[in-house]
Write a structure and sequence with these properties.
Elements: E1 6-11, H1 15-26, E2 31-35, H2 42-46, H3 49-66, H4 82-105, E3 110-113, E4 117-120, E5 123-127, E6 130-139, E7 143-145, H5 151-156, E8 159-160, H6 161-164, E9 173-177, H7 181-192, E10 196-200, H8 212-224, E11 228-230, E12 233-241, E13 244-251, E14 254-260, E15 262-265, E16 269-271, E17 285-286, E18 289-290, E19 303-305, H9 316-331, E20 345-348, E21 353-358, H10 361-366, E22 372-377, H11 382-386, E23 393-398, E24 405-412, H12 415-427, H13 432-437, H14 450-462
Parallel strand pairs: 1-2, 1-6, 2-3, 6-19, 8-15, 9-10, 9-15, 10-11
Antiparallel strand pairs: 4-5, 5-6, 7-16, 12-13, 13-14, 17-18, 20-21, 21-24, 22-23, 23-24
Helix pairs in contact: 1-9, 3-4, 3-7
């Protein structure tokens, strides 16, 4: 029997990689984690979830203070110190990153700082002639910013989401290319700090992974907050005009040009797999994405993957589940676990927040899954009226036979928190009748779910 240096080597020390390493060590496997990034912590902590949410909350506090007169509170002229906004964010992120570094360095596994690339199916090189072997591998190398679709953008220059969370000063104006979660969160953050923002989206609506009604609601809010929104566009050109950067695109059959101090490129991320030497290990990829089955196993049976490098959903809690699933399966092939995305959750931390769990209407229709649906607006709900949080709605999808809840969406105050009531309901396969009958305290935001639940229960009764 061949001897290896380790039972499991995890490549990547972010959320998915750490979850895999922790699970492997707990299973008694001799484990190593290799991290080749200049910083330790992973995308979520360093440049993704945590810094962006810290900045968004700061902009929300400022926005509420500016509107305080609505509730009879007069705080005076609201000003801000952008350096302090960023300093607080930096301090918090350092704490999170330091803790993750401690977890990696102090875990029951070996932590190696190096860039790894496969030399053969069981061997990785670490640079400088160093190499190590393992019986199994878990790949969790994350993602990087997608390449620009126009060569001219590279010539003109732009910032990415990685740069945006580390800015020293605010631009006076900004063109944001993209209409997904990253683009929308940054659009509102910058606009609320006084930047003139123009959002240019290729699809017909922003937030295209959600149903159209959610995107349209956010477009309404953005326009009210003086964010200029163009949807259904095709990028044509980018150039400089004096000190300004100009982007040209086709919109409704016409060529439109907009200019600003800076361009934020927010057209997504791609798997960070190019330098791994996967061809030497027999690992199949599609457009850079590592192909796995539901057990998180790649085309090389002893190699697994987790997180953004494999997808299909670039979400932290899913990366953690994938890392744990991968290690369970390499350790216990006789009793495999499979990933189940039935309870897929997505949250966008704009104001109002946008969230869904399970099926959207468009996903159900595409998969030919029958459903009934009902929604209810926050502008007719007691607690949200008290809060002056009138934008948005909640929506439920249910099976037209037994009434089992198939999905839920929330565009509204604390939407990212409220959606978890439907996550819990779906986890236990509750019906709309059961949700409608469940006690809800009054007045709360959460009781709004009872209205679409009651409407759907009535539809089932009448059927």
């Amino acid at each position: 029997m061949q001897k290896y240096d380790f039972d499991v080597v995890v490549i990547g020390g972010g959320s998915g990689g750490y979850a895999a390493a922790r699970t492997a060590a707990a299973a008694g496997l001799k484990t190593a984690v290799i991290e080749g990034g200049s910083e330790v912590g992973g995308l979520c902590i360093l440049r993704g979830c945590m810094p962006t949410k810290a900045l968004l909350y700061a902009s929300e506090v400022k926005h509420l203070a500016e509107r305080a007169d609505t509730w009879g509170v007069r705080p005076g002229k609201v000003t801000f110190d952008f350096a302090r906004v960023m300093a607080r964010k930096n301090a918090q992120i350092k704490d999170f990153a330091d803790f993750r570094a401690q977890q990696l360095a102090g875990g029951k596994f070996k932590f190696i700082r190096a860039r790894a690339a496969f030399l053969d199916a069981h061997t990785v090189g670490l640079g400088g002639g160093k190499k190590l072997t393992a019986k199994s591998f878990v790949l969790a190398t994350g993602s990087r910013v997608a390449p620009a679709p126009l060569p001219q953008l590279n010539e003109v220059g732009f910032i990415t989401s990685d740069d945006a969370v580390a800015l020293k000063r605010l631009p006076k104006s900004l063109i944001i290319l993209g209409g997904g979660a990253i683009a929308c969160e940054f659009a509102q953050f910058f606009a609320r700090f006084g930047v003139k923002v123009t959002l240019v989206q290729r699809s017909q609506n922003i937030l295209k992974e959600f149903d159209v009604d959610a995107g349209m609601e956010m477009e309404k809010v953005f326009r009210r907050e003086a964010i200029q929104v163009f949807t259904g566009t095709t990028l044509l050109d980018a150039n400089r005009k004096g000190k300004s950067k100009v982007v040209s695109f086709e919109h409704k059959g016409k060529r439109v040009s907009v200019s600003a101090d800076e361009i934020l490129f927010a057209l997504g991320r791609v798997p960070a797999t190019v330098a791994l030497g996967l061809e030497h290990a027999g690992v199949k990829t599609e457009d850079g994405r590592i192909v796995t089955n539901a057990r998180m196993q790649t085309s090389a049976p002893h190699i697994y993957a987790a997180g953004d490098c494999t997808g299909p959903h670039e979400i932290v809690h899913i990366a953690i589940q994938q890392g744990e699933t991968a290690v369970h399966n390499l350790a216990h092939p006789e009793a495999p676990h499979r990933m189940d995305y039935r309870l897929l959750i997505s949250v966008v931390f704009t104001d109002p927040q946008v969230a869904f769990v399970g099926l959207t209407e468009k996903a159900a229709a595409a998969r030919k899954i029958p459903f009934i649906t009902a929604s209810y607006p926050f502008n007719d709900h007691g607690k949200s009226l008290l809060m002056e949080a009138k934008d948005g709605f909640v929506k439920l999808l249910a099976n037209p036979g037994k009434g089992e809840i198939l999905g839920g969406a929330c565009v509204g105050p604390a939407g990212g928190e409220l959606i978890h009531e439907i996550v819990a309901a779906m986890a236990k396969r509750m019906t709309v009748r059961e949700l409608a009958a469940m006690p809800h305290y009054h007045p709360t935001l959460a009781e709004i779910w009872t209205y679409p639940a009651e409407e759907l229960a009535e539809q089932l009764k009448a059927a």
